[in-house]
Amino acid sequence: MSDPTRPAGPKIIAVANQKGGVGKTTTTINLGAALTELGLHVLIVDLDPQGNASTGLGIEPDDREFTTYELLLEDIDLGDVIQGTGVDRLKLIPATVDLSSADIELMSNEKRSFLLHDALRQTGIDQYDFDYILIDCPPSLNLLTVNAMVAAHSVLVPLQSEFFALEGLSQLMLTIREVRQTANPMLRIEGVVLTMYDARNNLSQQVEADARSNLGDLVFSAVIPRNVRVSEAPSYAQPVLSYDTTSKGALAYRALARELVRKNAKIAA
Ligand SMILES: Nc1ncnc2c1ncn2[C@@H]1O[C@H](COP(=O)(O)OP(=O)(O)OP(=O)(O)O)[C@@H](O)[C@H]1O
Ligand SMILES: [Mg+2]
């Protein structure tokens, strides 16, 4: 029987913002973990040479035998790169610093923008029954991020609640438009999520007001507060959801997951 809370086939979401340190990796890990708590099966693709999503989920560099680098540039089966994590139903394709040269190596490849798209559509993926695939992008609009946008159904944009937050968005939107025109006409914007929000800070409130007036419904109702437990969790190799399950950060990521699932159920209906 079909479950209305599950999209048909894996829904692929690129978590992107070329601005550094805005909460892309934190959102990828914790939204992923929150979706698994709803019983969903999730794959995180670490597409950042910094490998922060891999480290944050406790996969040490020595345990990253096959990575997104091999997935993109070598003929490797998905089964060889997908690893388990400490979280039930959450799998990972890790990354290492090797990926930093991929951007240049990809240039000479005729299918350079479609490599992740094709890799994630290998027939072997069906056996995992993933509901969501979340791609953690690097802080750049380079060929890696373009690969994520070509592979994805939608882009989720973490927006740090601070001055200049909205300024980088026009460049990001331009890239999304280019990808739509050239490679992925169906690419949607999943939404914008405010991160590191400090309710006592006027600036946070101003950024939220600006984002909601400029972007309307694209901004998720769920807002992620600045919460020290969120920033501590990766050093314990855990999502905040298990590190401190009742923390404000954990509650906020659960609210975001529920909102995402609701939105997608509506689209499917
Ligand atoms: N809600 C939060 N509360 C407190 N600290 C946070 C929160 N979200 C993220 N951080 C911290 O902010 C820093 C940047 O977050 P994160 O690594 O997720 O950003 P990023 O966009 O992935 O960065 P990069 O662009 O380098 O990949 C990290 O140290 C993280 O622990
Ligand atoms: Mg990151």
Provide keyphrases for this structure:
globular; single chain; binds adenosine-5'-triphosphate; alpha/beta; seven-stranded mixed sheet; 269 residues
Model description:
This protein has 269 residues and is of the alpha/beta class. 40% of the residues lie in helices and 13% in strands. A 7-stranded mixed beta sheet has the order 3-4-2-5-1-6-7, sandwiched between helices. The model has no long low-confidence stretch (mean pLDDT 93). Magnesium ion binds next to α1.
Q: Specify the helix fraction band.
A: 25-40%
Structural class by SSE content: alpha/beta
Main β-sheet description? 7 strands, mixed
Mean pLDDT: 93
Structure summary, number of beta strands: 7
Q: Which series of helices and strands comes N to C?
A: EHEHHHEEHHEHEHEHHHH
Overall outline:
globular
Radius of gyration: 17 Å
Strand order of the largest sheet: 3-4-2-5-1-6-7
- What is the number of helices? 12
From the N-terminal CA to the C-terminal CA, the straight-line distance is 15 Å
| Weakly predicted, low-confidence segments | none
Strand proportion: 5-15%
Give the bound compounds.
adenosine-5'-triphosphate, magnesium ion
